[in-house]
Design goal:
Helix 1 crosses helix 7 and helix 2 packs parallel to helix 3. It is built from eight helices and nine strands. Strand 5, helix 4 and strand 6 form a beta-alpha-beta unit. The longest helix is centred in the last third of the chain and has 17 residues. The protein is globular. It has a single domain, classed as Ribokinase (UDP-N-acetylmuramoyl-L-alanine:D-glutamate ligase, 3-Layer(aba) Sandwich), CATH 3.40.1190.20. It is of the alpha/beta class. The chain starts with a strand and ends in a 21-residue tail after the last helix. The strands form two sheets. A six-stranded mixed beta sheet has the order 3-2-1-4-5-6. Strands 7-8-9 form a three-stranded antiparallel beta sheet, sandwiched between helices.
């Protein structure tokens, strides 16, 4: 039996709740072997980011190539790209290795509000990475930023933004509704067949650090295991909803604490 493998290309979170650490926890919780290529080291905790040390682009390339020359990667998740040169390095690696599935989480701003991606890198992300992605997973502010539009406030506007993001070259877009309001947190899967709302009860907790990273890596895990897009997204949504619901079992930090990736096990 072949072991499903997923590679995360993202930044490191020193507090363990988001980024590479959240991705690897998610892969492990879902039965997928996780590999990683680190794009940046961050000094951060549950209260915010105090420093970012970017990894040289050629070493990002070296990490990715080392993984692909040895491991059978079923899916790639891309998170924090940090700067233009790193976006270019990732795009070149994707072109070189042609992975079957790429989940792009366009990380621009941390949960704490700290900006994590430079403006020129956002342009390169639009032009170089989105066309190579199987699915992109922006939240409402990120979808608006990618399109230089106002944040969508209703389903019609979200559907419109989803279609305009599809036009950038990716076959599917999952717009995350966690920044919305109301009793339900509804994500929207937009593809060439239309729009599928994915509602879940909105959970009252401050412990939401790493939710976006974990959702996108859960989708990558599903795709690595051979699930179709709709199934991978639905299963990932169920996983992250349960991880958020169990987050208050933890008492970690004094700000936005982490979700409970291993809620099924302890």
């Amino acid at each position: 039996m072949t072991t499903p493998v997923a590679l995360t290309i993202a930044g490191s979170d020193s507090s363990g709740g988001a980024g590479i650490q959240a991705d690897l926890k998610t892969f492990a919780a879902l039965g997928v072997y996780g590999a990683s290529a680190i794009t940046a080291l961050t000094a951060q905790n549950t209260r915010g980011v105090t420093g970012i040390h970017r990894v040289p682009p050629d070493f990002v390339t070296a990490q990715i190539d080392a993984v692909f020359t040895d491991l059978e990667v079923g899916a790639v998740k891309i998170g924090m790209a940090a700067e233009l040169a790193i976006v270019e390095a990732i795009a070149a690696a994707l072109e070189r290795w042609q992975p079957a599935h790429v989940v792009l989480d366009p990380v621009m701003v941390a949960t704490s509000g700290d900006r994590l991606l430079s403006p020129d890198a956002i342009t390169a992300l639009r032009d170089r990475l989105i066309p190579r992605a199987t699915v992109i997973t922006p939240n409402l502010p990120e979808a608006a930023a990618l399109l230089d539009e106002a944040i969508a406030t209703d389903e019609a506007a979200i559907a419109g933004q989803g279609r305009r993001l599809l036009a950038m070259g990716c076959p599917a877009v999952l717009i995350k509704g966690g920044h919305g309001r109301g009793a339900e947190s509804t994500d929207y899967l937009v593809d060439r067949d239309g729009i599928t709302p994915l509602p879940a009860p909105r959970i009252a907790t401050a412990n939401t650090h790493g939710t976006g990273c974990s959702l996108s890596s859960a989708i990558a895990a599903g795709l690595a295991k051979g699930e179709d897009m709709a199934g991978a997204v639905r299963n990932a949504k169920a996983f992250i909803s349960a991880a958020i619901a169990a987050a208050d079992r933890f008492s970690v930090g004094h700000g936005h604490g982490p979700v409970h990736h291993f809620h099924r096990f302890y």
